[in-house]
Each structure stands twice: as C-alpha cells, then as structure tokens.
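Worked example 3. Consider a protein that binds fe (ii) ion.
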Amino acid sequence: MTRLDPLPLFPDSDRAAVRHLAAGVALMPGFVDAADLMPAVEAIAEISPFRHMITPGGYRMSVAMTNCGQAGWITERTGYRYDPVDPLTERPWPPMPESWSRLAGRAAALAGFPDFQPDVCLINRYAPSARLSLHRDEDERDFDQPIVSFSIGLPAVFLLGGEKRSVKPRRIELQDGDALVFGGPARLFYHGVGPLKAGAHPIVGECRINLTFRRAL
Ligand code: SIN
Ligand code: FE2
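Given these inputs, the predicted complex is written out as structure tokens:
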C-alpha cells in the first residue's frame, strides 16, 4: 500500500519531515548535516582510503568507495561480499562512529523500522559524472532490515526502480543532508544513481558522499 500521508514532523525536531514516497520508502529532507558527518568520513578514509573497486565483469566503478563497521562491502572476481578485513590495508575496517549508528537507527525508526542496528556502513564518493548503475542490495543476510542512506554534498538523482530490472525507475532528487530509507516491500528494489553534475559544496567539496547503513552479517 502506498502511503500518501501529510508530512508528520519529527518528534524532537521541527526542521524536517518524513515523506513516504512508496510502500517501504521514506525520504527525510535535511535529516543530517554535512558539517557533523564530514570529519568522521575523513578520519575513516585516512585508515581505509577511498578506492575504485573492479566489478566481477572487469569494470572499474566510477564511484570511489570505502567502509566502516564490522565488515565492508567488497568486489571480487567471483562476486560481491562483506569482509571484516579491508583487502587494501589487510586490516579491519575502521569502526562505525556510534553517533552514525544512532542516527541511522533513528531514521529507520521514523520510516517505520524500529529495530534497525547497522553493522556496516558503505561510504560512496561521487565525483562529477560518476554514477551507479541499477542494482539490488542483496549481499546482506536479513532482508527484513532496511537500507538507510544519508547524502551530503552535491545533489544527485536517485533512481528507484522496482522488483524487476525492467521497471522504469522513478527519479528522486537527493539533496545535501537528506536521509532515504528503503525496506519492507521495497527492500530488494533495483536502484541506482544518475551521473553527478559538477558543482562545489562548502564542506564536502566538488563531490557527493553517500553513506549506506546495512545490517549485513
Ligand atoms: C547505493 O545504492 O549503494 C548507493 C546509493 C546512493 O549513493 O545514493
Ligand atoms: Fe545500493
């Protein structure tokens, strides 16, 4: 059932609202602040640097990635998986900041998923023209848990498809500070990100950063 509620205000803040875009999909504009998140992004990238992973098909991804938490999402010749060790540094991924997991849990709860405790955060960095082709997040163990995504920096068009790759994706503009939650009936929907337009953000710089929180293990 698609909910088209008016916008309920956050219980403890009046600066943003929850927009139910489809069953299991909620957008919270201005839920996070780039100035709060960016120092930890930089600290994580000092330990486990952003890198362009190579897909099993041999393509270099235009999005640069790193991870924090109990494991990280990685590509291999044989496929995709979560690994507790960063293959680049051969050390564990940096821990997830507690403030991040708390924020992600709160976003999930506001979207209708009350028990979300992420163990992994994939950090994506999009430079101008970088994009992410349609895919499903299907490497996690428990699809009852939603995906929570925070976007900071330059705006991007999030492409929200459906259960089949053939469903024409809906275009959702994600702005600096937006949280997007997808779970329940939308958990395995195809999704992607359109090519990033050039620009500059005062704190994040000439790029967009997206954090996706998952319960992977
Ligand atoms: C993802 O699908 O993993 C990232 C989505 C985004 O960058 O908004
Ligand atoms: Fe994804």
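Take a moment to read the result before moving on. The longest strand covers residues 120-126. The pocket of fe (ii) ion (ligand 2) is lined by residues 135, 137, 191 (CB under 6 Å).
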